[in-house]
Each structure stands twice: as structure tokens, then as C-alpha cells.
Inverse folding.
């Protein structure tokens, strides 16, 4: 696959960019069914985790806002399969999927949603602000685009230290209109940093379709202005995501070169739980649900004779999620004494 | 002990810490080869190279955002914002991300960095090169704010700021960058954060001040002394966290409190100080506390000496308060 694209060809693409037919042929899948099964398990865990989170939210057990990743799971899971555990990831407020994909336990994640002291951020962050030092998941961010320059900084530090850890930063297509995106891309390209910018283009910036928020729908073209490598594809298979992101990760790790990757995807739920999603038709949603990558993985694995393994996964995941909900419900809330030491390091009387 | 001005003292502190700790990097607009618009980083590029003294594009949000990421990885970045007036593009990163990192990670990650930036009026810079936005950062929990008034404090407070576990905004009063001179201890020298300094002892009126206006307050205090009124002048040095104990102890003795700052009056740090004085020393007061400050207007180009709380505005207030 060639990443180089001349400006003229790029412009032609802009004019032709009505919408993503099959933007790219699926890359050759590598590794065997074992890996596929384990990644399916992770996607299914995220799906079931969020379905139960939505239920708890509806029962007012979870407060504030809840942005579900349902439909986009192959991206976080494929990316995590391509990354090393010591690589850094940061993402948006739609962060449960990436946290679980990186290895956060459903218990720590669910307890955080419940605002309990056993949560990944001691219950101080909640849904939009997961944080997991152990798995180098440096947070979900509630300010759109705010994390992009920060990921540039971790990439800088990796290069400065002569290490080969890669930073990967996820954001939606809504974030590319924000200044942080430009400033982050600009610095990463200028300093040739080991970073992968992953735009999860789910076609809606909150409630507005991308045709009404972007003058050029092909987000990946923005890389050209920075002299940065780019890639663009539909999320069709978790192993395809892993392989395509793997190329960008290798470029970062081996050559310290950044890449902008645009992955077309779709979220099956609203922007947040409070969004009934009236800006899109039922037909559109049903049509897209037929392309649910998770479901297609399951069908593929069933056809390959892994029915028993899938049923075992079903049971394990159901048990895990039920345990996580129980754990979250039974855990205590943090007391106000947690606030001061998490605001400043030392005593702060006045 | 060598004599230095503020620029030299800050440069000395940066050089000292960069020699001591390879995690320390400096980044900002023109900080490298040029040595910064006020030459504060002059010579560092030659000694430490372009991967530790980093020229950046004009990109304040990117500079501070990237510095936060560097800090998360374990570096100790010291971004320079060329003028405090240019800090607003980075305000989101400072307020939304930097200040909240320790909290949002459940206490696991400090985002430890020092943002250096020239502050205040006195160079006829007009409304984009003269402002004093300290209160806008003091109001954000999670940040510390420092403003030195002399070369020795500049060095000592900067080294303490770099080694402090919390993020620090280090405001450098540009009016006295070269005008303030003094002995600066060689080598490793720190002044603890959070400690005000009684610069001039007195017993009639307490004057609290910081940065370049210290010299105006001292001038007014000396003139008042000629008329028999002895002011106690306190240099706050660290604006947040406040050394409120030193202030209150003084006010309890004098019964009279004046705060002087360049920033506009309304909701400035002076307002907070007056509130604290009222809360903690109300029954000791002999006169209403007073703020002598910049105006609630944009910083003017042509009326700088009227806008700034110079000694000609401070002295009458002292005399009036003493007679109250």
C-alpha cells in the first residue's frame, strides 16, 4: 500500500469524495483464529460492558454523561493488538472501549462510572475521564482535541530519551476543526515524532453530519499539509485494523515518523445517552448495524467451527460484567478528604 | 557573590538546573538561537543543544500541551510564553489539562512543569504586551503562581518552582528585568515557595505587594516615613499558595492594610487578600482595607504612569489611611 499521494491526486480525491465506498481493499489478514477469537472476546467484553453501563445509567446509578463506543470496538481492540503494552494511548471522552482494550479490568472501569473509590481514577473522573497508569492509558479527555498536543509531548519525550515507545492518540472527525489538532500535527511533523494520529471518523460530530462540519470530507488529506504520511480505510475487521495501524506504528517506532490514519466507522448509539439520535434515519442505522464488525467476526468464527469457544466466551464475559456491576455497586464512594491531596502535592491551607 | 540583574539570575537558574538534571528542557518561541525576546535563555542553546533548548512555532497551545505530555513521560519541561499576554491560546491546556492532571489521574500523575512568562507594564507595550493575568490562574485549583521582585529571589524561586511537585506559573516582571540588580548566590540556591518576605518593617500600615510594584511601594513607604508614618512592606513572592499568616500577623499589629497590584482592581488578587484580611483580622482593623491597582480598563499605551499603581498613587493612600 502506498501512502504517498501527490497534491493533484489528492485534490481529485477531494472532488470525488462523496462518500466512502469501499475506500480500500481489505488487507491480507494475518495470524490465526486464536488471535481473532481473543480479539473478538475483547470486543464482546466492551460491547457487553457498555450495554450494562447504559442500563445502570438509565437507573440513575451512573451520573453525568455517558458516551458509548458501541460499533467502534474494532478500532480500540485492533489498535491495542498492534501496540506494545509500554506504548502510550490517549483518547476522547468516548473512552471505555480503549481502556478495556488496553487491559483495564471491567471492575475498575465500572466502579469509575459509578463514582466509587475503587474506580480507575478513584471515582474522581467518571465516564469521560478514565485514567490507567498501569496500562499506559493516559486518559480520556472531555475537552475535544485537548489531548492531541499532550500526546505529541509524550512522543517527544520518548524520542528525547532514545526509547522506542510509540504514542497513539484517538479523536473523532469533530476534533479536526479544533486548533489543538493543527498545533499537534504541526509539531509532530516538524519534530518527526513517533506518534500515530487516529481519527475515528464516525460521521457525526455530536449531532451534525460531517458533510456539514468539514469542507473536505477526507480527513486524511490534512496530513499532506504537514508533509505527514497518511492512511485511510473503513473499519471492516479487527485484524484489518490491527494490520493497517501496525504499519503506522512500525513507521513511528522504526523511523520516528508520524502518521495520520483516518478510520471510517459508525456508532450505533447517540453521541451520549441523552441523545436520541434524531439527526439520522432509522433505516440508516439499521443498514449500518448489518455491517457490525463484531457480529461479522462472530459469524466468521462460527463458520470456521469455533461455536464452542464462542459460547465459552459468552459465559466468561457475562460473568465478568456481572461481577463488575456487583463490585461497583458494593464499593464505597470516596470521601471529601481525597480532594486536597489530588489537587496539590503538599498541604495547602490558607 | 556575583551581581546580576533579573535576566542573568533567571538564566543562571535555568543553566544550573539543566546541568544538574538532563530531564530539564526549555521550549518556546525564539528561545533557542535567539535566546528569547528578552534574552533570558541566551547561551543555553549553545551549551545544551537543540534537543534541550527547543525553538517552537508560534503555537502556545501546542507548546504547553506538548510540555504537559513531556512531563507525563517524566521530563521536566520549562516552556516560555513570550509575553503573559500571549498565554490565552494556551489557557485551555493550562486550565483544562495541566491544573487537573493530579486530580483526574486519582493522584497518580502530577503534570509537573514551570511556565515562565514576562508580565506587567512599564515598557509602553500597550494592551497586548503589558497585562498582569495572575488572578486568572490563581482562580484555578491545581496551579501555583510565583512572581519574584529581585534577582536573588528570581533564581531561588525558579529553582524551587522547577523542583516543586506541582505545576507553576512563573511570572517575570519585565519592567525590572534589567533594572533590578543585586547579589545572587552562586550554585544551588533555593527560596521556598509559599513564603512572603517582610522587606521593610513598620507598625502603622501594612503594604502587600509583589513584582515590579515592590519598588514603588518602598518609595512611597520611604516618603511616608519622612512624615512619621512607618509602613511594613511585604513582598508576597509566591502569589499562590498565599503566605496569609505573614500578612495577617502584620495586619494585627498595624490595623491598616493596603494591597498594591498592576492588574485591574475587580476580582484581582487584591480582592482575595482583602477578603482574607476581613475574615481573619476584622477586629484588629483601624481603617477599611484598600486596593491600589490598575484600572478596570485595557492596559493603556499612553497613560501607563496613571494606570500603574506607582508611588504617586500609593503615598496619598498611605497618608489618608494613617489619618483615618
Amino acid at each position: 500500500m502506498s501512502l504517498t499521494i501527490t497534491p493533484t491526486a489528492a485534490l481529485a480525491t477531494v472532488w470525488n469524495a462523496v462518500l466512502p465506498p469501499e475506500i480500500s481493499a481489505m488487507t491480507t489478514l494475518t495470524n490465526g483464529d486464536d488471535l481473532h477469537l481473543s480479539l473478538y472476546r475483547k470486543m464482546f467484553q466492551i460491547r457487553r460492558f457498555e450495554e450494562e453501563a447504559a442500563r445502570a445509567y438509565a437507573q440513575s446509578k451512573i451520573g453525568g454523561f455517558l458516551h458509548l463506543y458501541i460499533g467502534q470496538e474494532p478500532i480500540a481492540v485492533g489498535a491495542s493488538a498492534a501496540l506494545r503494552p509500554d506504548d502510550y494511548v490517549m483518547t476522547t471522552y468516548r473512552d471505555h472501549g480503549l481502556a478495556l482494550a488496553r487491559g483495564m479490568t471491567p471492575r475498575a472501569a465500572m466502579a469509575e462510572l459509578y463514582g466509587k473509590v475503587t474506580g480507575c481514577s478513584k471515582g474522581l473522573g467518571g465516564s469521560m475521564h478514565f485514567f490507567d497508569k498501569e496500562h499506559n492509558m493516559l486518559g480520556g479527555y472531555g475537552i475535544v482535541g485537548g489531548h492531541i498536543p499532550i500526546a505529541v509531548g509524550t512522543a517527544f519525550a520518548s524520542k528525547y530519551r532514545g526509547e522506542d515507545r510509540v504514542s497513539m492518540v484517538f479523536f473523532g472527525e469533530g476534533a479536526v476543526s479544533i486548533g489543538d489538532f493543527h498545533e499537534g500535527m504541526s509539531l509532530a511533523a516538524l519534530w518527526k515524532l513517533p506518534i500515530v494520529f487516529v481519527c475515528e471518523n464516525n460521521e457525526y460530530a455530536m449531532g451534525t453530519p460531517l458533510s456539514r462540519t468539514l469542507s473536505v470530507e477526507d480527513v486524511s488529506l490534512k496530513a499532506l499539509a504537514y508533509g505527514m504520511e497518511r492512511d485511510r480505510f473503513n473499519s471492516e475487521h479487527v485484524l484489518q485494523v490491527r494490520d493497517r495501524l501496525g504499519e503506522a506504528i512500525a513507521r513511528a517506532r522504526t523511523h520516528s515518523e508520524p502518521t495520520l490514519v483516518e478510520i471510517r466507522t459508525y456508532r450505533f448509539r447517540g453521541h451520549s445517552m441523552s441523545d436520541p439520535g434524531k439527526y439520522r434515519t432509522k433505516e440508516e442505522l439499521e443498514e449500518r448495524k448489518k455491517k457490525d464488525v463484531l457480529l461479522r467476526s462472530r459469524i466468521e468464527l462460527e463458520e470456521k467451527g469455533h461455536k464452542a469457544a464462542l459460547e465459552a466466551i459468552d459465559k466468561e464475559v457475562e460473568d465478568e460484567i456481572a461481577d463488575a456491576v456487583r463490585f461497583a455497586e458494593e464499593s464505597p464512594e470516596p470521601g471529601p478528604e481525597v480532594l486536597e491531596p489530588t489537587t496539590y502535592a503538599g498541604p495547602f491551607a490558607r | 557573590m556575583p551581581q546580576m540583574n533579573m535576566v542573568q539570575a533567571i538564566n543562571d537558574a535555568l543553566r544550573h538546573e539543566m546541568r544538574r538534571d538532563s530531564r530539564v528542557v526549555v521550549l518556546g518561541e525564539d528561545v533557542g538561537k535567539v535566546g528569547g525576546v528578552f534574552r533570558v535563555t541566551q547561551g543555553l542553546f549553545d551549551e545544551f543543544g537543540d534537543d534541550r533548548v527547543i525553538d517552537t512555532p508560534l503555537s502556545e497551545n501546542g507548546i504547553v500541551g506538548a510540555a504537559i505530555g513531556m512531563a507525563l513521560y517524566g521530563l521536566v519541561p520549562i516552556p516560555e510564553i513570550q509575553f503573559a499576554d500571549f498565554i490565552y491560546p494556551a489557557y485551555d491546556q493550562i486550565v483544562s489539562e495541566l491544573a487537573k492532571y493530579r486530580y483526574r489521574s486519582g493522584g497518580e500523575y502530577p503534570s509537573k512543569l514551570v511556565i515562565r512568562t514576562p508580565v506587567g507594564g512599564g515598557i509602553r507595550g500597550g494592551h497586548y504586551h503589558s497585562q498582569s493575568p495572575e488572578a486568572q490562574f490563581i482562580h484555578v485549583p491545581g496551579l501555583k503562581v510565583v512572581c519574584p521582585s529581585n534577582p536573588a529571589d528570581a533564581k531561588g524561586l525558579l529553582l524551587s518552582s522547577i523542583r516543586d511537585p506541582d505545576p507553576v506559573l512563573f511570572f517575570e516582571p519585565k519592567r525590572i528585568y534589567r533594572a533590578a540588580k543585586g547579589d545572587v548566590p552562586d550554585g544551588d540556591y533555593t527560596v521556598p515557595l509559599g513564603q512572603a518576605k517582610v522587606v521593610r518593617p513598620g507598625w502603622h500600615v501594612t503594604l502587600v505587594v509583589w513584582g515590579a510594584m515592590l519598588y514603588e511601594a518602598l518609595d512611597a513607604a520611604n516618603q511616608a516615613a519622612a512624615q512619621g508614618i512607618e509602613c511594613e512592606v511585604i513582598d508576597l513572592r509566591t502569589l499562590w499558595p498565599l503566605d496569609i499568616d505573614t500578612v495577617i500577623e502584620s495586619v494585627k499589629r498595624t490595623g491598616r492594610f493596603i494591597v498594591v497590584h498592576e492588574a485591574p482592581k475587580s476580582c484581582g488578587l487584591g480582592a482575595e487578600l482583602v477578603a482574607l484580611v476581613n475574615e481573619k483580622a476584622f477586629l484588629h482593623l483601624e481603617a477599611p482595607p484598600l486596593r491600589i491597582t490598575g484600572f478596570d480598563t485595557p492596559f493603556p499605551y499612553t497613560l501607563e504612569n496613571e494606570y500603574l499603581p506607582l508611588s504617586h498613587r500609593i503615598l496619598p493612600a498611605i497618608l489618608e489611611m494613617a489619618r483615618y
Chain A has one domain: 29-330.
